[in-house]
Specification:
Blueprint lengths: L7 H12 L12 E3 L2 E5 L5 E7 L7 E7 L4 E7 L9 E8 L2 E13 L2 E6 L5 H7 L2 E6 L2 E7 L3 H15 L30
Antiparallel strand pairs: 1-2, 2-3, 3-4, 4-5, 5-8, 6-7, 6-9, 7-8, 9-10
């Protein structure tokens, strides 16, 4: 699997979005429990995320979000970690369905915990949902070993949440000339043979 570099402004915004007070738009999708996972709309209304806190020293929290434009963000937080905000890291991520070596992540501090955030290619949610574990290493130092049981059902619910966040049905409609009604909409379609 390729190792894309995350877009830093979006990565920094993730912590603020997930832990800010939820406006009315984000409240249209009530948080739902799916096994050990919680699925909720992001506070800014631009996506949804799933989360799980693991019972271990420092209480590791995993957050995985997808925005309506398709970008994704993976965050891990732990009260015992000493990562500083904006630290730049290269970590190895291993799923039971593939891996990402020396993948870029950036340190964040949120809700009394330190951790990191990164993003992945568009197919990562499929790999995540089909995997039974996530292992993260910093070189030869293990960072975390997480059980992902139930992630497939949680990801299916996250997709339902995202469907509720998508722009109205007129955004992607195409005029007669093949020009979308709103060519800047995230779901605007390119017509075949366009020049």
């Amino acid at each position: 699997m390729p190792m894309p570099v995350p877009k830093l402004p979006a990565a920094f915004a993730l912590a603020a979005v997930l832990f800010a007070g939820a406006p009315a738009a984000a409240q249209r999708y009530p948080a739902r429990e799916v096994g050990d996972w919680t699925v909720a709309a992001s506070a800014d209304g631009n996506g949804c995320f799933l989360s799980r806190t693991y019972q271990r020293p420092g209480g590791t929290t995993l957050l995985f979000g997808i925005d309506t434009d398709g970008t994704n963000h993976l965050t891990l937080l732990n009260a015992n970690w000493s990562i500083a905000s904006r630290d730049r890291l290269k970590l190895d991520f291993r799923l039971s369905r593939g891996g990402y070596a020396k993948h870029f992540a950036i340190g964040i501090v949120s809700d009394g915990k330190q951790g990191f955030v990164t993003n992945f290619e568009a197919k990562f949610p499929v790999y995540f949902a089909a995997s039974t574990f996530l292992r993260v290493d910093r070189g030869d130092i293990p960072v975390e070993r997480l059980n992902l049981d139930g992630s497939g059902a949680a990801m299916a619910e996250l997709r339902r949440c995202l469907a509720m966040r998508q722009p109205g049905p007129t955004a992607g409609k195409v005029r007669e000339e093949g020009i979308p009604r709103d060519p800047f909409s995230p779901d605007a379609k390119r017509r075949s043979g366009a020049r």
